[in-house]
Amino acid sequence: MSMNSESHQKITSAHLSRMAYLYVRQSTLRQVLENTESTQRQYALRERAAALGWPLEHIVVIDRDLGQSGASAADREGFQQLVSEVSLGHVGIVLGLEVSRLARNSTDWHRLLELCAFADTLILDEDGLYNPGLFNDRLLLGLKGTMSEAELHVLKARLRGGILSRARRGELKQMLPVGFVHDVQDRVILDPDVQVQGAVRLFFETFKRTGSCLAVVKDFHARGLLFPRRLRSGAHKGELVWAELLHCRARQIIHNPRYAGAFVFGRTKQRHLPNGKICSRLVPSEEWILLRDMHPGYISWEEYQSNRQQVQGNALSWSDDRRRSPAREGNALLQGLVICGTCGERMTVRYHLHRGQSVPTYWCGRRPMHRGESGLCQTVHGGTLDTAIGDVVIEAMTPFAIEVALTVQEELVSRHEEADRLRRQHVERARYEADLAQRRFPEGGPGQPVGRRCA
To answer: What sequence ranges are listed for the domain Recombinase (predicted)?
Structure first.
């Protein structure tokens, strides 16, 4: 009884002459739909404000932040509106079921307390009525805000611990790359769609033959082949679509251990930037949670590692750990293969015209450049060197020339047959979808009855 009278003593006519703002929030849309009891309890605070003397027409309900997290005020328009109204002196009392409904961030919470104390605005929650201008009330509200933020930290830590525990056992369900699906028991299996399997297997076969992601993309484009992918968002999330193979997607496939039958977690980490955006960065492979042979794959683990090393070797770099580069445009036979005998770095190629023909020159200037000196390590005339190496290669390969030619011919035939098979599957899929749409159209087309009227 004394506490109730003390609460009424904190309310003055100045408070009652201003508006009462009730702030309603749930953290997720799922909570809004399923945890309706909490929402009803928050709306019921209107009767509490009316009992304290505020007319119903002076009670404003802010529920624009339903489904928004209280960890930050950046995306909460309702909370920002509340803070603005308090700072303008329009609010006599702020109502919230708990401190956690208003804010789970100490910065946002203490800013609201400062404004309420400055504007002589009261705060009411389920436990009582507080005046932030009074030291004891403000101390208690500060402790509640700290506990609310700590509670959020504990919840996140528990969720993170559960995720890591399941990941270490390989039981964490993740979004799968194209070529894999979950069965009814949530086990990872190869996609039962033979066309999808064929496209993925052809991708790795082509990479094994060409040795480069860009070469795989060019090969698919040259043969008019499409590559599958599943939509990650939108109204058609999860549906399979066929599109041109892009270089970035080819690199993702090569670097994904899932295709070798491995479970992996923690490949990237996200960081929130000051502008509100989220930045993702790659994590070193030593920090991943990696479990091999967890489900069927398209390639072996050894082939996966070999593919990654191949891509790393293809990268153009001046670093010491990358001494090879892919064959590029130009007629130099040894481009990307010649090592400077002076500094040990990879030599580059320059071309000049000699009697109307493009002649390569291998040169290296790495050591002088690193030391800030002028000049080159050495230069080698490419025409003479290429001729000498070419003669050695031809001499070594001549006895096997016929056998190699026959092998190449068989491989070309096999490639054409595989491409034709994939094209036939595309045509069969399109024909099936067209027939299915044609059968469905009369059932719901114009002029067709959609129901019967009961007599």
So the answer is: 177-317
In the chain, how many domains are there? 3
DSSP letters spanning 17-72: TSEEEEE---SSHHHHHH-HHHHHHHHTHHHHHHHTT--GGGEEEE-TTTT--SS-
Instruction: Give the whole-angstrom CA distance, residue 164 versus residue 172.
Output: 8
Q: Which of 368, 389, 390, 388 is nearest to 378 (CA)?
A: 368
- Residue 232 belongs to domain spanning: 172-314
Per-residue pLDDT, averaged over 19-45, amounts to 87
Threshold 0.85, pTM exceeds: no
176: nearest Cα among 316, 72, 310, 295: 295
At 91-126, the pLDDT tens digits run: 999 998 887 788 888 888 889 999 999 999 999 988
Strands (E), 225-267: 227-230, 240-243, 263-265
Q: Which residue would you say has higher pLDDT here, 311 or 366?
A: 311
284 class by beta-carbon count within 10 Å (0-12 exposed, 13-18 middle, 19+ buried): exposed
Task: Say how far apart CA 343 and CA 397 lie, in whole Å.
Answer: 32
Residue the block writes with tokens 């082949």:
225
DSSP reduced 3-state for 130: strand
Q: Are strands 348-354 and 357-364 parallel, antiparallel or unpaired?
A: antiparallel
DSSP code of 346?
B
Residue 148 and residue 55 share a domain:
yes
Q: Look at residue 439 and tell me if it is in a domain.
A: no
| Angle subtended at Cα 295 by Cα 199 and Cα 174, rounded to the nearest 5 degrees | 85
Sole residue written with tokens 């009261």: 122
> Which residues are catalytically annotated?
27
Contact present, 138 and 117 (Cβ < 8 Å): yes
Q: Strand, coil or helix: what is 3?
A: helix
Burial class (CB in 10 A: 0-12, 13-18, 19+), 52: buried
Same domain, residue pair 31 and 115: yes
Query: How many residues appear in the chain?
Result: 455
User: Mean pLDDT across the chain, nearest whole number?
Assistant: 82
